Amino acid sequence: MAVLNRLLRARGTTAVNSIRRFCSTLKTEIDLPAPPLSLKKPLPLGRGTGDRNVQWVFLGCPGVGKGTYAGRLSSLLGVPHIATGDLVREELASQGPLASELAKIVNQGQLVSDELVIKLLSKRLEAAEDKGQSGFILDGFPRTIRQAEILEDVTDIDLVINLKLREEALLAKCLGRRICSECGGNYNVACIDIKGENGSPGMYMAPLLPPQHCESKLITRSDDREEVVKERLRVYNEMSRPLEEFYRNRGKLLEFELPGGIPESWPKLLRALNLDDDEGKKSAAA
Ligand SMILES: Nc1ncnc2c1ncn2[C@@H]1O[C@H](COP(=O)(O)OP(=O)(O)O)[C@@H](O)[C@H]1O
Fold it and tell me: Considering 72, 89, 143, 252, which one is annotated as catalytic?
């Protein structure tokens, strides 16, 4: 990890080479030219035999549903879904030396340091590599321009999906989030029903209720409290929103406005990604 720390202090050529060496253990094919990106036909990008798997990123505000759609696409495409928020929470739960400092940061809705997130992400990518997995769908990383630059130095990202949802739904979705403490299933008890007015359409998102055997084991994330969610939304706008421009300038950004809940949004997302004719896989992920 000293290599990463050096890189984070000075992103000079030597440091970049160091991280390239480091990341070559992750088999991220640093020197491969990025496959030509066309949002009309983003697939099959690197899905053929002997080629690498997709390397995608999900952007979007807290509560937008990055985890839900990244998870579904990861099952569909057979690539690991890597959520840095989950990695941070695992580190917190491990009660290691960093746990109490981390808890303070996360529960105030702030970002943890780039150094720590990169360390956790590198470990996770190494584990994926050890399991013979290739490609990834990143969710929650990068979250700052600095993280995006570091990622760009070490690998090619094919596509960045920017999920968008009406502002009034975001807070309610975060506050409605529930996790089963036993099986880890993610649910949402919020029922979002925005009436259409003055020409703007209404929107309905049904709750995603847990099965009966999970009902008594539901917990709420400690950072899904109203004041913390509002701070996370503010931090997102300040630190992460500039990533849209960063990836738009590179021709990698796919903007996707969620039209409603999973039943309406999932087929439309598949269509936007040119995955909709793959019926077998679609049902496998449903
Ligand atoms: N890439 C990152 N950089 C810095 N902090 C991160 C990153 N990813 C996750 N975190 C930390 O973990 C918390 C939870 O992340 P996540 O589950 O992705 O939340 P959200 O629902 O806000 O998208 C964040 O508020 C932040 O403290």
Answer: 143
- What was the pLDDT predicted at 201? 84
21 has catalytic annotation: no
Per-residue model confidence as pLDDT tens digits over 152-203: 999 999 999 999 999 889 999 999 999 999 999 999 999 999 988 888 888 9
The CATH code that applies to domain 2-165+230-268 is 3.40.50.300
Q: How far apart are CA 1 and CA 89, in angstroms?
A: 20
Residue of 47, 221, 268, 281 marked active site = 221
The model carries a pTM of 0.82
- Bridge partners (DSSP) of residue 83 are 139
3-state secondary structure of 100: helix
- Give the start-to-end residue ranges of the domains of the chain: 2-165+230-268
Distance CA 252, CA 237 (A): 20
9 flagged as catalytic: no
127: left (phi over 0), alpha (psi -120 to 50) or beta: alpha
ipTM: 0.98
Per-residue pLDDT, averaged over 258-269, amounts to 94
Q: Which residues line ligand 1 (CB under 6 A)?
A: 62, 84-85, 88, 105-106, 109-112, 117, 140-141, 143, 147, 223, 232
